[in-house]
Amino acid sequence: MSDNEDIDVDSDADKRAHHNALERKRRDHIKDSFSSLRDSVPVLQGEKQSVKQASRAQILDKATDYIQYMRRKNHTHQQDIDDLKKQNAMLEQQGECGLKAQGQLQVQEGESWCVWVMGTTDQSHTCTTYALLLMAFIALSQ
């Protein structure tokens, strides 16, 4: 046996050992990933300590079921959010209409007050100022 043949054998053994180490690392990563997935699915949580652990196929099946369940739940929540946004917009619009109507009523009350105080309903600066003061007084007294 020559020195070249010994080097080739060592080199082949090193290559095989390196390949085996990489393969072991890959299998460990897959095993850890399945463990992490199992722990992420509520139905499977805690099965590590149970007598019969779920198989990889069962883990994938339950994970798929859980993802579909969460998608349906998220869709339902998104519909609820959209409905609440529409409801909120309608209420804001109704509130704005109510405030406009209330403001018009207060301006009319202010104009009546201007007529009573000043004997006129013109929109002069003085009458508008009095109307604003009256609206502030009404708002504070409520």
UniProtKB/TrEMBL annotation:
This protein's UniProt keywords: Activator, Coiled coil, DNA-binding, Nucleus, Phosphoprotein, Repressor, Transcription, Transcription regulation
GO molecular function: DNA binding; DNA-binding transcription factor activity; protein dimerization activity
Chain intervals for the UniProt region annotation (Disordered): 1-49
Biased composition (Acidic residues): 1-11
PROSITE patterns for the chain: BHLH (PS50888)
GO cellular component: RNA polymerase II transcription regulator complex
PANTHER family (alphabetical): PROTEIN MAX, PROTEIN MAX MYC-ASSOCIATED FACTOR X
Similarity comment: Belongs to the MAX family.
Protein name: Protein max
Any matching Pfam family: HLH
Biased composition (Basic and acidic residues): 12-32
InterPro entries, alphabetized: bHLH_dom, HLH_DNA-bd_sf
BHLH domain: residues covered: 14-70
GO biological process, one term: positive regulation of transcription by RNA polymerase II
Coiled-coil region: 67-94
